[in-house]
Amino acid sequence: QHAWRGYSDARRTRAKLREAQLAAEEQWVNMMERFRRRWPQIQRRRRVVIHVPSISAEEHVRWGIPHFSTRQNLQMARLCAIADPLVDVIYVSPFPLTDDLRSYYDKLLAVGGVEDVAHRFKVVVPENLSRFPDSISLTSALLYSPRCLRRIKHFARGKEAYIVPGLVGPEDKRLSMLLNIPLLAPEPSLAALYSTKSGSKRIFTMSDVNIPPGEACAVPAPAPVA
Question: If we measure between CA atoms, which residue out of 57, 24, 42 comes closest to residue 177?
């Protein structure tokens, strides 16, 4: 009886987890659909852009990238998005920035005519990043850093906000679902397909664009989201 009760409890727990996952997926799909419909209005309103320049590739790919943290931080120029007076920026960095680097961007933006620079952008670093291997993606480290997540939620509370990722992966979708903030990116399965050479060749073919002769692997289309 004890073994049967344990088996039954495990089955019920798995069923509840599946139901919760399906409900979260449906909520995310609806949120993304609303985001797509409202995009023209969002562009004309004050908004917060959360930049997470993560390389959310598979682990064996990340292991082969030299200076991985530096590569993830090559998009710091995204801070210049505050040149638009309607945009505030949250930039998630894979390591703490030096005072010289922060001072450089402060002066650069001030010279560009940006007012109130110090309050227009925030740089946050996942507090638990050092607890993980150097090859962990920035988004994964952020998911395991509750203090950093709270700071992002606090800065974006009550404002239009969306996440701009780097190389999109499943963890970026989980971050979007956790923060309840839409992702300015395709579904990770679509991103994985069309970021390949075969996938991009399919895009050009469907767009009736001339492409050089060559062979492309037959890549199956991603399954539709329920």
Answer: 24
Residues 6+ apart with CB under 8 A from 17: none
The secondary structure of the chain as a DSSP string is -HHHHHHHHHHHHHHHHHHHHHHHHHHHHHHHHHHHHHHHHHTTS-EEEEEEEEE---HHHHHTSTTHHHHHTTTGGGGGGGGSTTEEEEEE-SSPPPHHHHHHHHHHHHHTT-SSHHHHEEEE--TTGGGS-TTS-HHHHHHT-HHHHHHHHHHHTTSEEEEEEEE--HHHHHHHHHHT--BSS--HHHHHHHTSHHHHHHHHHHTT----S------PPPPPP-
CB burial readout 28-62, b (16+ within 10 A) else e? beebbeebeeeeeebeeeebbbbbbbbbbbeeeeb
Q: How far is CA 151 from CA 96, 104, 125, 146, in A?
A: 15, 24, 10, 9
How many other CB atoms sit within 10 Å of the CB of residue 134? 12
Tokens representing residue 221 in the block: 């289309």
What is the per-residue pLDDT across 5-53, written as a single tens digit (0 to 9) for each?
888 889 999 999 999 889 988 999 999 999 999 999 999 999 999 999 9
Q: Which residues pair with 183 in a beta bridge?
A: 163
pTM above 0.90, yes or no: no
Compute the distance between CA of residue 144 and CA of residue 127 in angstroms, rounded to an integer: 9
> Is the distance from CB of 132 to CB of 94 less than 8 angstroms?
no
